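does this look right to u?? zinc ion version
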Amino acid sequence: MSKLSVITHEAFARHPVPMGHPERPDRIRHVWQALDEDFADLDRHQAPEASAEAIARVHGEYYLDLIAEQEPQEGMISLDPDTHMGKGTLEASRRAAGGAVLAVDQVMTGQAERVFLAARPPGHHAEPHKPMGFCLFSSAAIAAQHARAVHGLTRVAVVDFDVHHGNGTQAAFWDDGDLTFASSHQMPLFPGTGSMTETGCGNIHNAPMRAGDDGAAVIAAWQDYLIPKVKAAKPELIILSAGFDAHEADPLASLNLRAEDFATLTTMIRQLAEDIAEGRLVSLLEGGYDLAALKASVTAHLNALR
Ligand SMILES: [Zn+2]
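got this back:
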């Protein structure tokens, strides 16, 4: 079976941010353009809102209410200097996490083999007890815990090639040896974590890259270091935090990947899933802030997934 499905929702364009903020609604519109132009044949599904129970598995019982009660009826509030909330933010964030949960359901029930979630805001900076870096809910970690609680899996891996370190996923996985986190990212850069000395209980694998590194360097880090580490952990499901801000045109970072490098990385991660996880692969959109580069990179990513 070779089947890719796509999950998204109109609500992802209704999370407002201040003028000039890079994580803006036009991002998802460019991803939708890519979907409409080249992937209209794929099954497309609506992202549901994540349940309180699914969110609580990572963030605790109190967190959803704490976030929900801060949503303003008009205007915007700031949860931190980068992370804003207006009318529509809660719904978009809940659907981003819920889309990740649905993606897991689809691969676990055989409805799809691979799923791409086109969502915003992203999730990998949200820590268990703290929204951060544009992110409110830790979608990748929520999806991993859902796979264990509802589908009976034991071991899940999140792999993350966003240019920023996925501090939130790392924090959520830190002391659970059945959850593996592997990441390539530029250092030094926001959020400041991601050194090779951060190893959790032996389940965290960080490959920091230097400003100016190109696709070949990042591909080598995955080939020689990260993929063997993930393989050794024998996860039953691979969740990919797919951020495309390592692109050379991205305004927030200084790695020099091109769209074709994301295709290569995607093919390697797809092969990893086929080798050890019965092909189960869930890809979640994280960053990517140059609109044309985001669209081209998502197109390359999906061509490698289909
Ligand atoms: Zn990023």
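The chain has one domain: 4-305. idk if thats expected tbh
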